[in-house]
Amino acid sequence: MLRFLVLTSLAALDLSSVQIWAMTFRVVLGEHDLYQTSGREQIIAVSKVHIHSRWNPYNVAAGYDIALLRLETEATLNSYVQLGSLPPSGQLLPHNNFCYITGWGRTSTGGSLSAQLKQAQLPLVDHTNCSKSDWWGSTVNTNMVCAGGAAESGCNGDSGGPLNCLFNGQYSVHGIASFVSSYGCNYPKKPTVFTRVSAYIEWMDSIMM
């Protein structure tokens, strides 16, 4: 990624205020605790929000839940702020591949949002398993990736956060948290659903040019 672009999901953004974003939206980089300032944070204004043209907020299951935020100034890279690595276009990772989710989402169903950044290891669930009728069924498509299970998962408030996966000795941002089950977090056979980043490399390339 480039130092003036932030990758996120549209589910994490308020589409009703899209016309206001360029004037009022800010990105905080290097954040760890939402309620304490460490001095390491970089607060940068957003100059433009790039929305995928096929995104439908009334049908999240259709996919295209991806956005790029263009910053007014470039981020300063340090030990707290680094660039994310993108996977090759079209890459599909194997079932049970090693991945991590990070976010400030709820730590339990109906619980409070986390004040501090949390991390959980999630096994990847391939499309064959995730799309089984007693799992997510037709709600998920091949442009999505599932991860997690009954032990660990994402939760409400994690939308827009990364799924970093290790493959061939390198971590890449393979997913962007999109949605969880309405039955609750950690619900059996309802892993967290992410936008599969490798399905949108060409779209991102068109914006980065």
From TrEMBL:
Q: Where in the cell is it found?
A: Secreted
What cofactor does its activity depend on? Ca(2+)
User: Which top-level enzyme class is recorded in the Swiss-Prot or TrEMBL entry?
Assistant: hydrolase
The record's InterPro entries line, in alphabetical order, gives:
Peptidase_S1_Elastase_sf (IPR050850), Peptidase_S1_PA (IPR009003), Peptidase_S1_PA_chymotrypsin (IPR043504), Peptidase_S1A (IPR001314), Trypsin_dom (IPR001254), TRYPSIN_SER (IPR033116)
- Domain of life, source organism: Eukaryota
Q: Which SUPFAM superfamilies match?
A: Trypsin-like serine proteases (SSF50494)
EC numbers for this chain: 3.4.21.36
Q: Which organism is it from?
A: Tetraodon nigroviridis (Spotted green pufferfish)
> Which CDD domains has this protein been placed in?
Tryp_SPc
Question: Reaction catalysed by this chain?
Answer: Hydrolysis of proteins, including elastin. Preferential cleavage: Ala-|-Xaa
Give a GO biological-process term. Answer: proteolysis
Indicate what this protein is called per its UniProt record.
Answer: pancreatic elastase
Q: Name one GO molecular function term.
A: serine-type endopeptidase activity
Stretch forming the signal peptide = 1-30
Q: Which Gene3D superfamilies match?
A: Trypsin-like serine proteases (2.40.10.10)
- Tagged with keyword Heme: no
Q: One GO cellular component from the entry?
A: extracellular space
**Domain Peptidase S1 stretches:** 1-209
Kindly give the Pfam families that the UniProt entry links to this protein. Trypsin (PF00089)
User: What coarse category fits the chief subcellular location reported for this protein?
Assistant: secreted
Q: Does the keyword Acyltransferase apply?
A: no
Keywords in alphabetical order: Calcium, Disulfide bond, Hydrolase, Protease, Secreted, Serine protease, Signal, Zymogen
